[in-house]
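Technical note accompanying the year-one report. For the benefit of new consortium partners, we illustrate the data format agreed upon in the data management plan: each record pairs a sequence with a structure-token string. No post-processing was applied to the example shown here.
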Amino acid sequence: MVDVDAVAAELYGLRPEEFTAARDAHAATARKAGQRADAKRIAALRKPTLAVWAANRLARADADQAQHLLELGRGLREAHRTLSGEDLRKLSHQQHVVVAAMAGEARRLAGEAGQDLSAGAQREVEQILRSVLADPEAADTWARGMLEKAPPPAVGFAEVAPAPGAAPRPQPPERDREPEPGPEPERQAEPDTQEAERTSREAELAEEALARAEAEREQARTGLDALDEQIVRLEQRLDDARRERERLAAAAEAAERAHREAVREAKRARTAARKARRR
């Protein structure tokens, strides 16, 4: 009996170049066992990119570290829901530090497994981890080391809706203070609430703008890295072509010398043949 979940857990722990052959073998086993539906599910499993594989490996290698990231994500989502500015500042700084450190660890782990993770791929891992922070469903899948593909890029925490009426947390009032009678406190509180909502919205928009700018910067860096890698490959091909040309030029020169010698030998042979006939 083929267990699809167990097969998926095994496959997403393999290196990308090992994935397809192992997946097809498991699908064939399921078909032979008469589990046609399970065979289709296995065959539909998607081969991960190098960055996705590295992110999965990171989660599998250190469950405590993975849980730390999940807790950070829960804290950030809660801070956005309650519009807690102080918590957002602390957790956002922690997010940048943790994500960068974990992406570096992913690169090290990939190297241990014989996979070279480029700077561009490492930034893709960082993007995956930021998406995990914002998306609880992706976080759960990543924590099990079973991401099939990179989650959609997280642009801030726009999908985390603030709680109804949420505003930046004010200082807690004194418990023994009684509200003053009459409508005056309400008239005074109304502009304060409006100002709090306005500043909260401005802070939210600023966070979203920063996230968009970071995403655009990462996209530009990724594109630049891809072009740099392409240039390196082209330069290598050019060097290879130059070496091949030098080899062929040397071979052509040797062939030309051999041809000239063959012509001289042919002339000598024809001359010798004519002399022999005259005798």
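Partners are asked to follow this layout when depositing records. The longest helix spans residues 184-278.
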